[in-house]
Amino acid sequence: MRVRSRVPALLLAPALLLAACGDDGGAQTTAPAPPPKVTVTATASGDQVTFDLPAQLAPGATELTLVNDTKEQVEFQLVQLDEGHTMAEFYPALESDGPAPIPAWVHVFGGVGETSPGERRNAVVDLQAGSYTWFSNTAPEQEGAEPLYRRGGEGTVEVTGQPSGAQLPATTARITALEVGPTDYRFEASGLKAGSNQITFANNGAELHHVVIARLADGATIDQAQEFFASEDFKGPPPVDFDASEITAVLDKGGKEVETVELASGSYALLCFLGDRAGSPPHLIKAKMIQEVKVA
Fold first, then answer.
1. What's the predicted TM-score (pTM) here?
2. Within 13 A of 68's CA, how many CA atoms are on the CB side?
3. Would 32 be classed as within a structural domain?
4. What is the CATH number of the domain that holds 53?
5. Do 244 and 129 belong together in one domain?
6. What is the side-by-side order of every strand in the sheet holding 240-247?
7. 11-40 residue pLDDT tens
């Protein structure tokens, strides 16, 4: 569930509308409450990191703002683990250099994607009641350094109490991950524009997916990008600019969240670097999950 050095050799209660009776006896629809805002702040002391966030959150759509006050990339990925399992059991899959199975007892619920040093990033996630584990799995800045989740970038949060009644906001922009056939995975995208975008990212497939929105390098074509990513060798300069890219958190099947991203006008490649749960090459290699989208 990671993108290394931004040139990835990868692993890796619903809100209700309430009706009230008006004085004239007619039904009035009450608008859903806006998602409560929660800030997650990442700080560093030496090689250790600390994520400051509430210990408890209310069920319902929640706007998470990840503030990165460290000098390396961070993310905030939410998962649930079946009873009796721990994150330490998940480490081997996260740290594998090749295709590795994702255990069936790990359930993935999105979060806030990769956030650069000194930056902040927003995502709205729909949280159901339960216990969640969060972790940051971005690549270490220095070769040989341990991943962030081994240096303090891991913890738990309880989603409990009265539901907030908030729902995911409706957005014009959408990116949906689809699986048309066993070797034909793809994205459908619409409504992207230059500037700030609220994008509904939905996983309508059976496998785990994320989306890397990477701007094509000057003069590069999507065909060149497809050729470059046809193998894991990644020889030569990449035809996409990973420094001008946005990477979402990972969603399980049926998952949905709203990401806020900044895009300049131009041509972008949408890519998925995750493998199948059973263990497979990244989806852009196994199933050519790379597509062009133009932003104007």
1. 0.88
2. 21
3. yes
4. 2.60.40.420
5. no
6. 240-247, 212-216, 266-271, 290-295
7. 333 322 222 333 444 555 677 789 999 999
